[in-house]
Write a structure and sequence with these properties.
This protein is mostly helical. The protein contains nine helices and two strands. The protein has two domains: 153 residues, no CATH class; 75 residues, no CATH class. The protein starts with a helix and ends with a helix.
Length: 249
């Protein structure tokens, strides 16, 4: 989990204003989703992955981020291949049932898959090179509801504590052979889940009381913005211009 949420803070991209990176990522997402072919989404995905690898992001982290999107892409391609189109690409029989793959369905599935891969790569690069608090501050600048941002910040802060508690409880159960059988495993997992829910509820009450006593009025100091820097704005505009030229090709 720590590998999924941590960012690369030792490179130039991490020090760029989060608002510039967020706006650039949103513009790239619009280009990827509106592209007429598969070349631009795949080129965008390749660019983002290359930048992540150059800056030292482990391959394991990238694989974890792309595991679920790749499964979704595979399912979409298979569904489109067998249920969309009129031009047969191949046919085979399975237990007396004729199954046909269609060329149009394969093309549409690969098109959708390329857009998904490009969008996921853009968001992965944004999260890797942007501290979580800076990303939340950028969303607050875009007038995202403040209650949503506050809840997300609290969840992010205490998610790691619950994860550490879960590891401690799991280790204790495993040492006592709590997962030695199917039934014991289910019972132990139920106990683990219930304990975490109770701990989360108790922690929420104590945290609320502590913050109110310290004068919390619903405003996070970390969400205050700094002035834009002209160099970062110019760099973002230049990058989007280059990507826009590729998008039109």
């Amino acid at each position: 989990m720590h590998q999924l949420l941590k960012h690369n803070g030792d490179c130039l991209l991490s020090h760029i204003d989060g608002r510039i990176k967020l706006l650039t990522a949103l513009a790239l997402l619009v280009m990827v989703l509106s592209a007429g072919g598969w070349q631009f989404p795949l080129a965008t995905a390749g660019l983002c992955i290359t930048v992540c690898r150059i800056r030292g992001v482990p391959v394991k982290t990238l694989l974890l981020r792309f595991a679920e999107p790749c499964f979704i892409i595979l399912m979409i391609v298979l569904l489109k291949l067998f249920f969309t189109g009129t031009t047969p690409l191949f046919t085979f029989h399975l237990n007396g049932l004729q199954i046909t793959g269609y060329r149009e369905g394969l093309v549409e599935g690969l098109m959708i898959g390329s857009r998904i891969s490009g969008a996921v790569a853009v968001m992965a690069a944004l999260v890797i090179f942007t501290p979580f608090t800076d990303l939340m501050a950028a969303l607050a600048w875009l007038r995202v509801p403040r209650s949503f941002i506050d809840i997300t910040l609290f969840a992010w802060r205490y998610l790691f504590l619950l994860f550490d508690d879960a590891k401690v409880i799991y280790s204790a159960q495993k040492n006592r052979l709590g997962y030695s059988g199917y039934r014991k495993g289910l019972r132990s997992f139920g106990t683990l889940t219930g304990t975490l829910v109770i701990k989360a509820f108790d922690s929420s009450q104590s945290i609320t009381t502590a913050m109110v006593q310290r004068g919390y009025d619903g405003t996070m100091p970390m969400l205050k913005q700094k002035p834009f820097r002209s160099v970062e704005i110019a760099a973002g505009c230049a990058f989007l211009t280059c990507m826009g030229m590729l998008w039109k090709i």
